[in-house]
Amino acid sequence: MFLNFLLIIIFLIKLNSEIVNNADEFQNIISKGGDEVDIFVNSYIEIKESLNFNKPVKKLLIDGIPYYSVLSFFDFSKQLNFTSNVNEIHIKNISIVGNIYFNDTKKIFMDNVSINGNIYSHFNNNEYIKLVNIVYRPISISSKNCINLEGNVEIDNSQFYGSLSCQQRLFDFNGCNKYKLIIKNSYFSGENQCSCLNISNGKEVKIKNTTFENSHIFRENLDGGVMKLSNSYMNIINCKFFNNICLNNGGIFYLHNMLGFEAEGLEIFNSTALINGSMAYIRTENNKNKLIAKFRNIRQINTGNIPGMTSGGLILHLSNFASADIENYYAENLISNNVSGGAFYLADNSKLTIKNIEINKILGNGIDGLFITSYNAIDINISVTNYTLNDLKQNYSRQSAAFIWFDLKTTASFKHGNITNVNGENINLMYISDSCKVDIEDLYVDNFFSKTARALINSHSNEKEYSSFIANKLNLNNIKSQGAIIELLWSNAVITNSNIKNIHSCYLGNNCTSRRDGTLDEYEAEIGYLHGNCDLTFNNTKFENIYGVRGFSLINNQKLEINDSSFYNCYFKNGIFEINNEKSMDGKYVINNTNFTNINSENGSILHIKSIVKNSYSNVNIRNAIFQNNTASKFGGVLYSVSPNIEHVIFLFSCKFKNNHALIGNNVYCLNRDSEPYISGKENLLRVYNSFVTNPTKLKLTRNIDEISLFSGESIPEGISCQLYDDYDNIQLFGTNLQNIQSEDFFLFNLEINDTYNAKLVGQINSFCWNSTCDFPPVKVIGNPGKYKLKLKLNSFGYYSPFKYNYVEINIKIKECNSSFIYQSTDGGRLKSCYLPVCKPSCNMGECVNNDVCDCSKTKLVGRRCNEYVKITRIKLIDYLIRIVVGFFSIATLCAMGLIIYYRNYPEIKGGSYDFLILILVGLILNYVYIVLLTLERTKIKCVLIYLFNNIGFSLIFGSILVKTLRIYK
Question: Reduced to 3 states, what is the DSSP secondary structure of residue 115?
């Protein structure tokens, strides 16, 4: 009912239109031509052959009923051919299923048209092509580009869908260097099967309020995931991009030899290029036009995090002479799990300017900088202002960078930056290579950690004069991993008005976990590591809460200059400035107007000099410095030196020393007085006890001993000791804390005598010193009468340096032996001892005739100590006689026992108690055995048997008699 009513209305409106209901009617009308041809498509029309508009027509109108009027080609190889004979075309309210070809038509207007097919065009002189409310889908016939348009194209409020039929692009526009393309309020989808746009030679391209999504390039030789722009000018505003991917370069844009490009208000989601430039890849072959691609107010969310990625540039890649200007850019979740993940990649002669950028979460896994990387550089220029980077992570196992990685000739300027929460496997914050110049202004870095120890700022070059790093208002905080703050190789660096604090705090708790991938000296430098030919300057910089082995390492004649700066509350085991020529650690230090407060170390909190060779390049010049409240747990509260050649190397002018402390040498500890630095006003410091101390230079006895007289074999007296003294006659300590002392800290000595042929020492000749003394052990001196020298000599010097006079001597006189003494060798040697014999324990009633030798001849006792009785010899004849007699009585007793048993019933036997008689006779036999045992040699068993038989025999005999007597009594 409604449809019929609508048809009536349209019919009344189209009274002047030619109404067609089939292909033949349509063909008849277009074959006539005319000034104005108005065709109304009244139904679904199936067309079997191409429709060619060959007759001249000034104005062609094709109209229909939406969703009802359809021109459908049965054979998709057939098409609508609009030739140059048609001057103006208006098509609306119909659906076209099939291909369309425009050939040099001046004016084309399509409104509310659904197209399923390919569109081709060729124009020499086109005024416009206006597409409004178009819904486009390709057909199944493959084509390089499904839509190929030239001319001045305007697209409004339309939808375009791609498919696999579009082998390269959904839409190809060729402006022929004279036509414009305008797209607004539209929608393009590659349906995850093709890319959206290819734009070339466009005089002017404007895209506004349009959405592009599901654009996908499968072919490896195609660039530009959403669009490719060549030799054209483009202005794109307020567009959105969703779920786009490119196997090559340019996830959204691939700009090649652009004539100009401006993008503003773009929102990009889930869009990635597998090689370079996930937002844009820009390549300019020629440096004459110097055109700049401009990006304003861009949001990019969720890039990467897909397999197959091979390179970085997760935002932008510039090559050749490309230039880009970015302002107000926000990015989030830039993820590259397996390869490089840098946001910006630059090569060749490219140029990049950025203002106001914020990136949250970048993840990479390659050799690059997560923010900006330059490579194959010829002349790259970078300028960045107002940048914020948060949550940066670099997972690559080899050296890489979190912020910038510059290779070759790159000039860069960074102003007003904030970088927080950085961590990685093996990262610098900045890596700057050959002939690069980097200028940092107002940068704050907080919370940095690398699992492998690396310098925070690493500038490596081969040409010092072309390389520089300049930083003003550099603020570093919470740098947790080990490695120098700055490492230079053939480079210059100047850092001004900066604050560096809370560096390597893990060192204090001995819980640093950074692996080491280099020399020990490189990663024990906590602030600066310089090698090659370098100059490093700090002006008005504050160093606070920095911990580690040393502050700076200058390798092979580098230069460090510090002006108007301060060091506060730091700990360096070997001081801030360490010089050790044996490890090539030398250089020139110029320190002016700098304060050192609350610096702690083991030896020399500020200067730690281990070795300076003659003609060394080392030179330290410190002026107007203040050293206050600095502490060394061992030596030299401010300066520690064990080198003999520093007097012409170290100079301190107009410096103030306030309340510095050390166990030895509150201010200065040196090898000796001849090896001290030049310090203006030194005489005032010398007035304070323990202010200047040197390494021990001599040993002295604690009391004067002219000579020790003794007999050969006597021990030296107890209580003899010596002490260590320095060149200022300060007593030095050996060691006082057993809990912290190491084996190498012990001071070992030995005793020796000068004439080892005529004398020797017996006893403990090796020992160690402790606290403030070396105590002589009570050794014995054995030798021929005469005068000798007993020497105590240090063999190890503990934590001191070796010194020449490391011994003391005592005169020893061995006296002639008294005649009342024994004079002989006590150990079998040729040297004799003079002594009174001593026997311990004593000889009892015997006489002590030598040491532990007793004479028992005047006593009835024997033995070594005259405490044993003489053993009596047995008379064997008596033993034999006793055995014979005992044997006789034993036989008689046995016979008597037999007779008693035989005559037991006789009254005489019964009256004598038969059982008691037997017991008495058994007791007699046991006593006979006892007597025989007494004639034998004693053994333990025999002694037991003697005791046993004697007592049992006695008990049987006299016990039986006692019982028998009691029976008679009763």
Answer: strand
Q: What angle do CA 291, 256, 337 make, to 5 degrees?
A: 110
What pLDDT was estimated at residue 16?
61
Q: Give residues with Cβ within 8 angstroms of 276, minimum separation 6.
A: 249, 250, 311, 312, 313, 317, 345
Q: Chunk the chain into consecutive blocks of 10 residues (it has 970) and report each block's average pLDDT, rounded to whole numbers.
A: 48 64 85 86 88 86 92 86 89 94 91 94 89 94 92 96 93 94 97 95 96 90 92 96 94 94 97 94 84 96 91 93 96 93 94 97 94 94 98 93 93 97 95 93 96 91 86 96 91 96 85 69 81 93 95 91 97 94 90 98 94 86 97 94 89 95 92 91 88 92 91 91 91 72 82 92 90 90 93 89 91 90 83 86 84 83 82 78 83 83 76 74 82 80 82 79 71
Q: Is the pTM of this model over 0.85?
A: no
Cα within 13 Å of Cα(563), Cβ side: 8
pLDDT at 166: 93
* Total H helices, total E strands in the chain: 8, 84
Q: Which helix (H) or strand (E) holds 23?
A: helix 23-30
Residue spans per domain, the chain: 698-815, 900-969
Taken as a whole, the chain contains a residue count of 970
CA dihedral 492, 496, 499, 502 (to 10 degrees): 10
Taking the CB of residue 142, how many other CB atoms lie within 10 A of it? 13
Residue 102 amino acid letter: F
Q: Which two tokens stand for residue 784?
A: 């021929």
Determine the residue type at 776.
Answer: F
Pairwise CA distance, residues 487 & 273, whole Å: 35
DSSP conformation letters of 786-851: EEEEEEEEES--TTSPP-SB-EEEEEEEEEPPPTTSEEE-SSSSSS-EEE----SS--TTSEEEET
Q: What angle do helix axes 940-969 and 914-934 make, rounded to 10 degrees?
A: 150
Report the distance separating Cα 500 and Cα 86, nearest Å: 76
Question: How far is residue 688 from each of residues 11, 657, 693, measured CA to CA in Å?
Answer: 118, 11, 11
- Identify the CATH homologous superfamily for domain 698-815: Immunoglobulins (2.60.40.10)
Collect all residues with Cβ–Cβ distance below 8 Å to 267 and sequence separation of at least 6: 239, 240, 241, 298, 299, 301
CA gap 790, 270 in Å, rounded: 89
841: cis peptide before it, omega within 30°?
A: yes
